[in-house]
Amino acid sequence: MTGVTITFASDNTTVATVDSMSTNPSTGIATANVTGRNQGTAHIQATATTGGVTLNSSPATLNVIPRVSHIDVAPATATINRGSTQAFTATAFDQNNQPLNDGVTFTWNSSNPSIANIDSAGLAGGAGLGNLTITASTPDGSGGTASGTATLNVQVPLVINEINADVAPDNMATVAIEGDANRDGVRDADDDEFIELLNNSSNSVDLSGIVVADATSNRFTFPARTTLAAGRAVVIFGGGNPPVNDPAFGGALIFTASSLSLNDTGDTVNVKLVVAGSDVIIATQTYGGSSGVAAASDQALTRSADAETGSSGGSFVAHNTARNANGRTFSPGTRADGTPFGSLPVTRIEVLPTTARANIGATQPFIAHAFNNSGGSEIEIQNVSFIWDSSDTSKAILAPTTGQTTTTTALASGDTAIRARAGAQQGSSVLSVNPTLLINDISQSEGNSGTTT
C-alpha cells in the first residue's frame, strides 16, 4: 500500500508510550511497539493518512499491570514483650522505584509462629521468646513473587532481684515473728522462702507458662493469663497463706508454690520458657560455692542497687547490707529500702498518732505514711513497707517490725519513740506509758464518840 502513512498514539503516555512503529509494504499491516510505564489504562489509536484524507481506528484498550520489583516492610526491626503486638506495613515498588499504592495486596508470614504469629493485616503478636522473620509477599506481575522482610524480637524482660533461701530464725524473746517473709503469721523455713522477679521494661509482659526452677527441679509455673505490669514485681513464696493485698508487698503480684526447696548454702535459680519443645532461659542466678555470690545467712540476697525500669540493678549482696535497708533482712515486692518499685523518693514520713498514752500492759496501734514533695506539692506514696522499732524496748515493744502498721505493747512507765523508716527517711511518734498508781497510805479519821450533857 503506497501513499498511506500510518501512525500510532497513546492517550495516556504516563501509563503507556508508543516506542516504535513499522509497516509491512507487501501487506500494508502496520505494527506498533508499546511500553507500559505505570499501572493504569491507556488507549492506543492508529491513524491512516493519504492525500487529504485521515482515518482513525477504534482505540484499543491497554491495561498496564504493575511489575513489582521489591517490597519494603516497616518497621525493619522491632522488639516487643511477650503478649504485646506489633503492626507492620508493606509498600511495593515498581521497576522505576515508584510506590504502587493501588491494587496490591500482601500475604504475611511468620518464620516461627511459636514465637510470634501474624494476621492478614500485618499485626504480629508475641507468644514465645526469641527472634524471627516477618515476610510480606505479593505477585510480581510477571509470574513470580516479590517479597520483603523485617526482624521481630520477642522478649520477656524479667530480672531476678531477690532470693530468700535461708529464712531468718524467729527470736522467741520478741513479740515479732522474725523470718515471716510471707506475712501469714508463721515463720516457716520452706514457706517463707521466696524469689522476687521484676519486669524492668516500660510495657507489660505475659508470664503464662513461664517456669521458675532451681538446680534440680521445676518449682513453679505461672498460670494462664498472668500479666505483669511495667516496672512491677512478682513474688513466688515457697508456700503458706500470704495476704496478697498487704501494702507491705509494694503492690507486687503474689503467688505460692507447693515448695521452692532452695538450698541455703548454694543453688541456681532459673526462669525459663518452653519454646518449640526446648527450654529457653530468660534469667538465671547462681549463689554459693564458686559462683562469686556468697550465700546469705539468715536473710535474703538482693541486688544493690535494686533493678528498675531500664536497669538490671547491681550485684547481689546480703540484704541487711543493701543501700538504705535499715536492717531489713528481706523485702518481698519492694526495693530493699521498703519503697515500691518505680515510686518517687520518700521525702517525709508521718507516724500517726503523733503522740499516744497507754497504761502498762495496754496496746497501741500506729500507722505510717510516706510522702514526696519533689514536684512542688506533696503527694503520698502508696504501698510502702516501713521498718519499725521502739527507741526504748524497756518501755514498749512492737510487732510486726515491717509493714505499714504496727502495734506496741507498753511495758514500763516513761516515754519511747516509735519510729518508722523507709527510703532513707524516718518518721516518729512518742508513746508515753503511764506509771502504775500505788496507794502508799490509807488513813481513816474517826470522830469522837460519847455523850454530851
CATH structural architecture of the largest domain: Sandwich
Name of the CATH superfamily of the largest domain? Lamin Tail domain
Q: What is the gyration radius calculated from CA atoms? A: 39 Å
Q: What is the overall silhouette?
A: elongated
Determine the structural class based on helices, strands and strand pairing: mainly beta
Total of domains:
4
Low-confidence regions: 444-453
Report on the biggest sheet. Answer: 6 strands, mixed
The share of residues in helices is: under 10%
Reading side by side through the largest sheet, how are the strands ordered? Answer: 24-23-18-17-27-28
Q: Give the terminus-to-terminus CA distance.
A: 181 Å
Mean pLDDT: 94
Can you count the beta strands? 38
Work out the helix count: 0
> CATH topology of the largest domain, anyone?
Immunoglobulin-like
The percentage of residues in β strands lies in over 45%
CATH class annotation of the largest domain: Mainly Beta
